[in-house]
Request: fold
Amino acid sequence: METGDLKILSASVRKDILKMLELAGSGHPGGSLSSVELLVDLYLNHMNFNHLNPKDPSRDYFILSKGHACPVLYAVLAQLECINSDELCTLRKAGSRLQGHPAADKGLPGIEVSTGSLGYGLSIGVGVAKGMKTLKQPNRVYVLMGDGEQQEGTIWEAAMSASHFKLDNLCAIVDCNGLQIDGSVSDILNIDPIADKYKAFGWNVISIDGHDLNQVDKAYSDAKNTKDKPTAIIAKTVKGKGVSFMENTADWHGKTPSKEQLLKAINEIDASIK
Amino acid sequence: MVKVYGNKATRFGFGEALVELGKKDERIFVLGADTAASVAINGFQEAFPDRFANVGIAESNMLGIASGLALAGFIPFAATYGVFASGRPWEQIRTTICYSNLNVKIGGSHSGLMVGPDGATHQALEEIAIMRCLPKMTVISPCDVIETKKATMAAAYLKGPVYIRYGRESIPVITEEITPFEIGKAQIMKEGKDVCIIATGTMVYESLMAAELLEKEGINAKVINIHTIKPIDEKAIIDAAKECGAIVTAEEHQIFAGFGSAVAEVVVKNAPVPMEFVGMKDCFGESGKPSDLMAKYGLKDVNIIQAVKKVIARK
Reply:
């Protein structure tokens, strides 16, 4: 899909994220909005994904390690018609397939594994990637993580093993919006220089503006063409991107908009694609 | 006479089963964390190097990778020392493996005091407690090398997470190839009516020895081997409670939240009878010779006998 169309799709995804969160009354707008372009370009332009059969054995795997950002995943799956967009309003309600963090046991197509406890997705991705190498299959594995999440030590075990096993079919994306619950990442537990860290762990590292669709697209292509090393895309993003009053503040990590705020946000997003 | 058919460490049963499984099923994948030889997975490593991965001293990663392999369609077995196989990656086991009901099998070697000289840091005495409380988890604690092999073979084809508790030290072989084994089914080792000794793992042999000595004193003890702690054979326990009116449980494990507690949960709800618990009394082990440690910490036939006499007095 062309950049222009992806921009429009991204705007729809943003609106769906906010609508479903307003209805749910709880959830994570900030970190969902910062990952929109990263996920939209991945699913529309790079992932081998069959929306009619999400368990297709030839599929690429996507693991949302920053599981709290599931509204963006649900919204993208709805755009792909993998799930019905009517279902988005059931987010976090009892009995819903759209759990507050992705759940693999509720029968929602497109969810590989339950995530939400930060720091585990990369290990899981390493496991899938190693499995694909063992089977000599070309499936690729993508793991989306947050920057606060890099504070979890389990990520670094996985990072070591990914390069040790030469998993060039593994692509990690770090959504660096600079903020976590209690404040800025650099104040709480500084993770920088994060690109250098992945490089030191033997990864191919690509640093990009996570909202520039051309850069995002090129990064995924470059990752595909990299041999013998896994790739880490370090994406500089804005928490709450697309909504002026949500941007760059930790406040909107886990708070949902009111009806008035939702309306204001939707107007802003519509205006941005005029 | 308690029938003993030899002495062998249960870890070799685990290892042999893996090689046999690997031969017939290319979905079997084995993971180690720098302890391959001592947890007996080196045989599989040599036979099937393409389906083996050593992740180094990184147990959380090992369980995460096992999860990913399960998603990729493999039947992964991840094994290391029990403390590090169950404790360190506990949350990964809970939230990734159990919550998504992933087909991951965990081998927890070096269980109990009989780890010996390495001491308390390596003597796993809590795995039953922290594994059995997890939804979807099956917990198996086999009594000898033959049962361990059968349990491992069976675990491969049970859908969902399984934890197998086995050990380092050579222990008596008390079952045979022809002894029936079924996950979830208790095994009556000896009939009796005065008291029922319900044991798991290494304590089954001690229970049989205790029962033999008790016969000489005119106490007729029933002995049940429960290898599957979860899902536990409730019927066997309830029948025993009704038949004998008193129960002693025995485990090489903490008495709080462990195997005895699992049995008590069934007894109290269905057929309350007096119970005594033989096990580690809420303390850590220490360095020493395995047999000395078992005696020092009260995990021998004599301790079971003491418990039997106590519980019978309360009938």
About this structure: Chain A has a mean pLDDT of 97.
